[in-house]
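Reviewers asked in the last cycle whether our approach scales beyond single polypeptides. To address this, we selected a multi-component target totalling 929 residues and predicted its structure end to end. The input consisted of the following lines:
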Amino acid sequence: MKLKCERESLQSILHRVQGIVSSRTAIPILANVMLEAREGEISLTTTDLDVGIRCTCGAEVEEAGATTIPVRRFSGIVKELNLPEITIKVSEENVLEIRHGRSYFKMLGLSVDDFPKLPDFSGKESFDVEQGVFKDMLRKTSYAVSQDETRYALSGVLLEIKEDMIVVVGTDGRRLALIEKQGEFAREFKKNVIIPGKAVNELLRIMGDEGTMSISFLPNQAGFRIGATLLTTRLIDAHFPNYTQVVPGEAKEKVVLNREEFLSALRRAALLTSERSNSVKMQFSKRGLEITAVSPEIGEAKEEIDLAYEGTEMSIAFNPYYIMECLRNLDDEDIIFEFTDPASPGVIKNEQSFLYVIMPMRVT
Amino acid sequence: MQTITVLPESVANKIAAGEVIERPASVVKELVENSIDSGAKTITVEIEGGGLSLIAVYDDGCGMSRGDALLSIERHATSKIRSANDLGDIVTLGFRGEALPSIAAVSRFEMLTRDEGSLAGTRIKMAGGRLLDVLEEARPSGTTVWVRSLFYNTPVRKKFLRSARTERNHIIRAVVLLALSHGNITFRLVDSGKEVVYSPARESLRDRVVDLLGADFADHCLPVRHARDGVIVEGYAGNTGATRSTRRDQYVFVNSRPVASPEILRGIAGGYRTLLPGGRHAVALVFVETGTAATDVNVHPAKREVRFSKPALVEGVVAEAISRTLRPGTPFGTRESGAPYEAPAAVTEGPPTKEELTAPPVPAVAGEQAEMPVERSMRVVAQMKGLYIVCEAEEGLVIIDQHAAHERVLYERYVRDYRAGAVHVQSFLIPQVVELGPEESSIISRHIGGLAAIGYDIKPFGDRSFAVGAVPAHVSDADVTTLVRDMVAGMEEGPGRHAVSGTVEERLIAASCRSAVKRGDVLEPAHLQKLVDELLGCERPSSCPHGRPTMWARSWDELDNSFKR
Ligand SMILES: Nc1ncnc2c1ncn2[C@@H]1O[C@H](COP(=O)(O)OP(=O)(O)OP(=O)(O)O)[C@@H](O)[C@H]1O
Ligand SMILES: [Mg+2]
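The resulting structure, written as structure tokens, was:
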């Protein structure tokens, strides 16, 4: 294999594929990137067996071929070589050589035969979405995903595609973020899958705000094609809880809050919570909204927000971090906060079809 | 000097009873074993008052003729062996001819039995070992035994018994153990009219496990099957995610007999070596077949132990069996087969006690550890084995058990929060359903109120299932099933066993700490120092809430002495 390509393009696609490679993998070849040179292009592939990424850029290929080499070192070299173009040669024995001026590198690769194949989506039906829209949906839900691997079904976001609607849901069992988009996806497509959190994070990293992307499925895999990049992921084979059951009916009280103001008040109050005393009390009364945090061995904080409130006076406790994460990922000027009583879930909504359900806390 | 006399039969029986019949569960075990030996297809056990008021066992086995029935209540009357030679080849569960007379000696005893060949059944009534009446009565072939007022004539024994609840739990376990090893028989246990165990005859071991230990148990297990040098091991090994803080969920059988076998428990631990965090125990169901000649069952009065002719071999084969199941593809080590198996370097909680399997828990620690003078500050020098923290104090060298220390710190913190009314409780969107075994459900049902007080909202949710609606905020995302099971294991130890004396809630908190404890974690130096500082800030830093010591110390003088300085 022998080729010449722009250093900057190579570096940028290396950066894209590198994210999922763990430095401590038990299978050595998974620390490698696969290089495949074909007529006029080079493509790079990495995988951790769950998630795989392939990215392609143009190249002057003199001799086609394929190999795998340690991705970290390779990317270090590409980054440090201060040149517009790089020439790469790989021998039959998987020895890679880069020679330029007074620099010379030789690296030992491993044969592509041992590199896991990414699932093949060719010929599978796919559907297209606006990248910006899908990215926004993932951003507004993925933070709610469970970080605990033992709660397998919750360790990814639910992606549900119905005839004229796409729904994304993330939950860790204590709060749930849900977003729906109508219309744009009309197609004979029906799907209900759980995408692992890791794949979602990678997607958020590589998706742009412009242009369309296409999504296709195999029985236990999903593939996301974004321009010259393909991300594939294993799907979580588990039963996602019935989220419609969690969404509460009409709430008794409803207030409109300025998102920034609410967020910064919570952020300050949260400074005086602790691992164990991790709730803030939200008290709604004629005087407005009062947010307090009390930790026996630390101290207390109180924040007031002006609010014209005519409803029943009540005080409800929540984990402030759950609310903050939600607010941080919204862009709206104002949000709607709904609640019923201290034992029922609170709900945050915006003007679009976003919904966040959060279970209250109590102090015994 | 007194002259030697032969003890009257009634006294001898009472003495034998002391060894064979320790508690109501022993009666259940002996009677059910007799029914199994009699070829019964269905065995029903009824109890009242934890077995102290009534234990009745009905079977549809071969029954006895009038003559045999009268013989069966004589000491050393058995139909199962004829001579000492037969002792080497015992295929029945009973062989001593001691159980019935022993039970009859310490209770009001009745038996109604008929064999195929007799027209009428025989009812025998006894009290305190004395024969009161022998009557004729109709009965389909089979045997029923009623044992009432157990230990009424041995008040000392009675005093040692625990609450009816505890005795009931022991009975459940006894029935579950026998049912697990006899899949072709239908078992039923009824407590005061309520069915607590029902296990129909089943072809597959897995179905039986689901009936008796819950689907959750079965779902977390891998089938085990391995044989070498005449030792066959079969059963289930829990995956490494499903662990417990005690060995309660390791069920061990030898030649279809539930036993406590330190060799097999060591073999299990060996099979899991390096796979489990310190202080955790796998769940396992292990059936070992050695053939009757290689195992002596005549070593323990209640037949709870066995002696293997090759204990190291049995231990080794069990370890191999488990290891192969968990690490498919890698044969167990590279030792040639047959080479002696070395015992695992360390079993974190010391050698398993025989009691852990079939016997009542025995107080492990008599009382609270004597408080040793504790220093105000210590400097962490190192961490060893991900378990011990080596510290330098002003007075000398101190080694701290990281788990015990963490448990103590958490316990005092949680108790403080609880007393201050500051337990922050987080609800779930959808309650998490946990499925438990019959014994576990019975324990947890009793503690629902106390658990609510310390921040766990747990509600019964149908048969043996519980819905967990909220947990304290400090409980991390951890698997709720493991959490609840650990708590059950902790609670069951009961007041006598805990060094914690305090309210029910405080004991529950002690039980809940277990699952929160750091296990086998390699911690950053700063983290270790923080833990040590927090421990020194505790009210009772020198023992964990369960009474185990947290630290071990040697003064500089002692050190100097040992180096002859
Ligand atoms: N349920 C039963 N059905 C038929 N025969 C029985 C039953 N229970 C007891 N027997 C007969 O009575 C005899 C005495 O029973 P017992 O339990 O006292 O002794 P064992 O079972 O022979 O030995 P061990 O003392 O080890 O249990 C048995 O050998 C058996 O022949
Ligand atoms: Mg017997």
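The longest strand of chain A covers residues 51-58. We regard this as preliminary and will revisit it once experimental data from Aim 1 are available.
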